[in-house]
From TrEMBL:
Belongs to the bacterial PQQ dehydrogenase family. This is Quinoprotein glucose dehydrogenase. One of its GO terms (molecular function) is metal ion binding. InterPro entries: Cyt_c-like_dom, Cyt_c-like_dom_sf, PQQ_b-propeller_rpt, PQQ_mDH, PQQ_rpt_dom, Quinoprotein_ADH-like_sf. Residues 462-538 form the Cytochrome c domain. PANTHER family: QUINOPROTEIN ALCOHOL DEHYDROGENASE (CYTOCHROME C) (PTHR32303), QUINOPROTEIN GLUCOSE DEHYDROGENASE (PTHR32303:SF4). SUPFAM superfamilies: Cytochrome c, Quinoprotein alcohol dehydrogenase-like. Pfam families: PQQ. GO terms for cellular component: membrane. It comes from Terriglobus roseus. Keywords: Heme, Iron, Metal-binding, Oxidoreductase, Signal.
Length: 693
């Protein structure tokens, strides 16, 4: 099969009038062939229309939607996962669908878009969206449920997964891809045990039935089973694809980027390399059978999920034109492989790293790093990298830096604290790269933020538990022992009694929401004890009837490394935008991306900032990108040089990937602006479309 597939020409890259799939198309290259807006006129762009979902919130609710535009209709999401259709030329609403209507359910705060399917006649066209644990099918023309799909219009994603009856958390934060009459997708699940396995599944678009299922944690007799403990497939979880996937339609190959196994910072109960966690897996899209794979992190204890779909690119190497797949990573690297065989197109070296000092933790002796292209984010934080923003900030950061371990990539976690750099959000983040098939340039934005991770000894099991001990064992890894959280991603729980009741906290613990998983292993008394502790500080004693974890260690805390004023502990740039020549394996250019307005007003400009959401490159010579957390800018750069050609200020930060389309001969650029990543701002939910006058 592979020999035949190798002779098939690549699918036409990029989009024209429509933006028909997440990130533009199944190749995940964020490229538009439209040219009406170009280098010569981009400075005259004006707002063409806006659409406000009306969902302004003081909570840090993320709004990451990349809308679809098909036949003049825009399909998008609100922050609470209401689905709507708009006239793409005017922004006028055509219909809306609320999956939470008639329920008390709260939508996930992280959902990046919908998937569109139509039959050959065009009479049956559907929008697929995930709300909590359900996959819905909606009529694209009316917004009504397709009652023949699944159980009255929806499929329970828990069905068919190991532990399906145990009430564990599962949803989809990123839409899947359509192949023939199947929707191929991954899932977002808990990153601590107990957790579902991250199986990749193909659902029949008409009936909702599972057509095939790939085990990311291999069962006995399957390839990779020997890279886990004997019974790990029964109890381990995650190794899931929350980032989305890419598809070579003509070859019928799906490229699936997988995350770490659970728990993601301690692996004492999963000794081995843990295939297929942290791997790019090429699957036969017809059957779900593995064709090839590559693992980027062996036995991950650093939360190094593959956090963006790979770009399906065509490049020139050694005089040959090669269809390739380029995978960017949280560590700030890009790995490039032959799309069919999986052979690396640039050298990769297995480098030695020290062993863990945590009892029971057996780390891999080596980890792979590419020789080229060079890393697009810094790899090690030393004293030379400590902030010089003010003398006071430098002194405070230096004291904290000297108390932790900082030896670069793949330094094992410690009890005293280890610098993770790039941090848990990258490097590359979920927006993914864009690729220009005209030039072979890959564009990627990146975060340059250090984090500090600490491992803690898990409290020993006892006949009874207190609210504090239950909180420590189940919640402190994310929200910290002092309830401070890691804003904006993980909220602080201090003064929670001013926002939530005991009943509401128990409901969240039982069912989870957004990034927070459910905790079905806790009984009602234990959930209530945790609620009493976080709301009132009461340390009530309850009987320990839930199953205690056998793990000796756990995540103690994982937080951004900041100075006392809340700015990054490292020197700028704090965010970058890089153009990488994949034909040569070298940089074409690199610039800071974003800034802090209050620092810029004091003369500290062009620092870069944390950024979330990808860019879009066009045949008109432009690279459009929002992404920056604090300045709320939407920018257009000259794709050849990185020169800034145009910028505007959005109502909220554009932490989403834009879409480019054409209606009635007019080209538009639209982006979702909702913020949610800044601790200093409220969250919103607006779509803003731009066009030439």
């Amino acid at each position: 099969m592979l020999a035949i597939a190798a002779g098939i020409p690549a699918q036409q890259p990029g989009t024209t009038k429509d933006w028909g799939a997440y990130q533009g198309g199944p190749d995940s290259i964020h490229y538009s062939r439209l040219t009406q807006i170009d280098r010569t006129n981009v400075q005259t762009l004006k707002v063409a229309w806006t659409f406000d979902t009306g969902e302004v919130s003081k909570s840090k609710r993320e709004f990451e939607s990349n809308p679809l535009i098909i036949h003049g209709v825009l399909y998008g999401l609100s922050p609470s996962v209401k689905v709507f259709a708009l006239d793409a030329a005017t922004g006028k609403q055509l219909w809306t669908f609320d999956p939470a209507a008639g329920t008390k359910e709260i939508g996930s705060t992280r959902n990046r878009g919908v998937t569109y399917w139509s039959d050959a006649s065009g009479k049956d066209s559907r929008i697929f969206v995930t709300f909590r644990q359900y996959l819905y099918a909606i009529e694209a023309k009316t917004g009504k449920l397709v009652e023949s799909f699944g159980d009255k219009g929806r499929v329970d994603l828990r069905i068919g997964l190991r532990h399906e009856g145990e009430g564990l958390f599962v949803t989809m934060s990123t839409p899947g891809v359509i192949y023939k009459d199947m929707l191929i997708c991954g899932s977002m699940i808990a990153e601590q045990l107990p957790a579902f396995p991250g199986d990749i599944r193909a659902f029949d678009v008409r009936t909702g039935k599972i057509r095939w299922q790939f085990h990311t944690i291999p069962h006995p007799g399957e390839f990779g089973y020997e890279t886990w403990p004997k019974d790990a497939w029964r109890y381990s979880g995650a190794a899931n694809d929350w980032a989305g996937l890419s598809l070579d339609r003509k070859r019928g190959i799906a490229y699936v980027p997988l995350g770490s196994a659970a728990p993601d910072f301690y692996g004492g109960d999963r000794v081995g390399n843990n295939l297929f966690a942290n791997s790019l897996v090429a699957l036969d899209a017809n059957t779900g059978k593995r064709i090839w794979h590559y693992q980027f992190v062996h036995h991950d204890i650093w939360d190094r999920d593959l956090n963006a779909p790979p770009a399906l690119v065509t490049i020139k190497r050694n005089g040959k034109v090669i269809d390739a797949v380029a995978q960017t990573t949280k560590t700030g690297h890009v790995f490039v492989f032959d799309r069919v065989t999986g052979k690396p197109l640039f050298p990769i070296e297995e480098k030695p790293y020290p062993s863990s000092t945590i009892p029971g933790e057996i780390t891999s002796p080596t980890q792979p790093l590419p020789i080229a292209p060079p890393a697009f984010a810094r790899q090690t934080m030393t004293e030379r990298d400590i902030t010089n923003r003010t003398p006071e900030a430098h002194a405070a950061v230096l004291r904290q830096f000297q108390s932790v371990v900082s030896n670069g990539q793949f330094t094992p976690q410690t009890l005293q604290g280890t610098v993770l750099f790039p941090g848990s959000d990258g490097g590359q983040e979920w927006g993914g790269p864009s690729f220009d098939p005209e030039t072979g340039l890959l564009y990627t934005n990146a975060n340059e933020m250090a984090w500090i991770v600490k491992i803690a000894k898990r409290p020993p099991p006892s006949a009874s538990n207190s609210g504090k001990s239950l909180y420590t064992a189940n919640c402190s890894g994310c929200h910290n022992a002092n309830l401070s959280g890691n804003p904006p991603d993980v909220p602080a729980l201090t003064r929670l009694d001013q926002r939530l009741t005991n009943r509401e906290v128990v409901t969240l613990i039982r069912g989870g929401n957004g990034r927070m998983p459910a905790f079905p292993q806790l009984n009602a008394l234990e959930m209530n004890a945790i609620a009493e502790y976080v709301l009132k500080g009461n340390d009530n004693i309850v009987s320990a009837t839930s199953s205690a974890s056998q793990q000796r260690y756990m995540l103690g805390s994982s937080t951004r490394f900041l100075d006392p004023d809340g700015y990054p502990a490292i020197t700028p740039p704090w965010g970058t935008l890089t153009a990488i020549d994949l034909n040569k394996g070298t940089f074409a250019w690199q610039i800071p991306l974003g800034e802090y307005p209050e620092l810029a007003a004091k003369g500290l400009k062009n620092t870069g900032s944390e950024n979330y959401g990808g860019g879009v490159v066009t045949a008109g010579g432009l690279l459009f990108i929002g992404a920056t957390n604090y300045d709320k800018k939407f920018r257009a750069f000259d794709k050849a040089t990185g020169k800034l050609l145009w910028e505007t200020t959005l109502p909220f930060a554009g932490n989403a990937t834009p879409a480019i389309y054409e209606v009635n001969g007019k080209e538009y650029v639209v982006i979702a602006a909702g913020g949610g990543k800044s601790v200093h701002d409220i969250s919103g939910g607006e779509y803003v479309a731009f066009a030439l006058p």
